[in-house]
Amino acid sequence: xxxxxxxxLVYITSSLGTPDHDGEVIGYRMAKAAANQQVRTLAxxxxxxxxxxxxxxxxxxxxxxxxxxxxAVRGRDFFGV
Length: 81
What we know:
It is built from two helices and two strands; from the N terminus they run βαβα. The longest helix has 23 residues, at 26-48. It has one domain (7-78). The chain is of the alpha+beta class. Strands 1-2 form a two-stranded parallel ribbon.
């Protein structure tokens, strides 16, 4: 991006990486929090070097995986819906 002077980044992340959620799946939440912060830090660093970027970070919603199977048993309480 520095060489070309521009760039686009797409991050797929989760609201579980925000301080609004607490408890459980700590490793997953830490990884998503790190990705969320990386977006912010990189945008600031590139701005200082006058490199315009477009950053899109989004949460795709609940996706059934082995990680989420445990929470499906507990029902809606975990996700607050």
